[in-house]
Amino acid sequence: MTFTRWTGMIIGIYSLKIDSGPKYPEAPPSVRFVTRINMNGINNSSGMVDDRSTPVIKVVLQELRRLMMSKENMKLPQPLEGQTYDN
Predict the structure, then answer these.
(1) Which DSSP string corresponds to 27-61?
(2) Residues 74, 15: Cα–Cα separation, whole Å
(3) CA 49 → CA 2, 37, 42, 57, 71, distances in Å?
(4) In Å, how far are 12, 34, 38, 71 from 54, measured between CA atoms?
(5) What's 5-74's CATH class?
(6) 28-42: b (≥16 Cβ within 10 Å) or e
(7) With contact defined as beta carbons under 8 Å apart, do 85 and 36 qualify?
(8) pLDDT tens digit string along 10-55?
(9) What is the pTM (predicted TM-score) of this model?
(10) Distances (CA, A) of 17 to 35, 71, 75
């Protein structure tokens, strides 16, 4: 049994999927929002976190938190609650 696929929630509103893959922690995890979010650093069409250069899940999540709290992202209009990406 391996723990390579994770589902997470942020603020109880935003759902995301984390796939660490077989080469984790040498290779960075794939992180994708399931719930639509309008935020710099997130691909608007797929929900993928754009920069996954860090190979540690904890650091990726901390960076997402920092991005969500940034003034420029807090000012962005958000999609209606409950909307999800198609893929």
Answers:
(1) SPPEEEESB----TTB-TTT-BBS------HHHHH
(2) 18
(3) 23, 11, 5, 12, 19
(4) 25, 21, 22, 23
(5) alpha beta
(6) bbbbbbbbbbebeeb
(7) yes
(8) 888 999 999 998 888 888 899 999 999 999 999 999 999 987 677 7
(9) 0.87
(10) 10, 25, 25
